[in-house]
Amino acid sequence: MTRWLKWGLGVAVFAGAVYLYYTEVKPVVIFGLRPEYAHAIPFQKIPEGLTSLKAESCGQCHREIYEEWKTSIHAHAYEDPFFQAYWKKDKHIWICLNCHTPLENQQPTLVKEIPRGRVEKAAQEPNPHFDAALQKESITCAACHVRDGVILGPFDDSAAPHPTKFDPSFRNAQFCSRCHNVVSGPAQFYNVGPCGTYAEYEGKYFMQERGFICQSCHMPEVDRPVAENGPIRRGRRHLWRGGHDPDMVKRAVAIQVKVDPPAPKPGQQLTVALTLTNAGAGHKIPTGDPDRHFTVEFAVKDGQQVLAEKRHTMGRWIMWQPAIVELYDNRLLPLASREYAFAYRMPEASKGLTLQARVRYHILTDGQHEMLKTKYGLMADDPYAFTVYEREVPLNGALASALADPLPEPPAMACMSPSNAPQG
Hints:
- By secondary structure, the chain is of the alpha+beta class.
- The protein has 14 helices and 17 strands.
- InterPro entries: Multihaem_cyt_sf (IPR036280).
């Protein structure tokens, strides 16, 4: 009886521990809370001189900025099919809206209390000011520029038909930190959170030594009237191109390929070395969502038949169960490089054979994409992987000249210059 009692007590303690873990410890979402985004941006009223908070109202005067915003991922952050699929996977947890539809006006419920900081235990009530049309505008103009009935901006000499106020925060990188600086939550062990681009950037080389800010690349400077018929002044484009834009990713990396020996002979071992450099980003690459990664791929092919291949992966490896733990991170810091190699012994007859070197950027894995389609209704045709670099050349003595493109001038210097440094 004593032995059975001990077994029973043991099982009860174990079951209790499992229950407490899954109800009180295990994370429901992959990030924790900070005061800045634990709640939506408080309700905003329409400033005098405007007809609504909708972007189209702003676009009546700020036409070019409005047209740029419409092309941005900020403008589609809520309706984005990838977000909708992931949000469904996360049981439509409310906290996601604090970045994807950040205004209280855009959210169907109001969060009144968050016991012990636990997102899933938050007390909510219907929002009487919810505007469903405004919600579809995602990160709309008012999310950044409207506070307390006043239009905030980076200029202190505005002459506009509505109340304006100079806000110096528009001229520093911290402005982006509310949503791009997610921290870890309970039972989560990250060095940097899953959307921690700002944390990777803060205080580093580009900011301290070069004076660059996030806006330097993601909102490039432009000389133009800020509003219709206004004076020409130096402002910024409202594009926010980033990890979903192939051209932006290509500008961030520099690639150099070398072969040894330069003119391989039959029977010799050929070594191909591809160097990937984070030449143009002031944060790690890839950054943001931990699903993002690069692959460096080599292959020797005979027509469509692959005779030999090798694939390297650069990204983050995270264990999601039973706790969230970052196991490995081999992403590239700003200005860092890494060499990836492939060895192949030259055959006696190489006629018709080709050597392929390729670098690809992945927003998510094939398995994750299939999971989102089959389980969570993802219907997007948007590419979730694209090629950054690719060369396929005959496997002969001309390899060196065919593959070894010169290392370009770092794109960072092209997209950011001292004139992009913070002003004021």
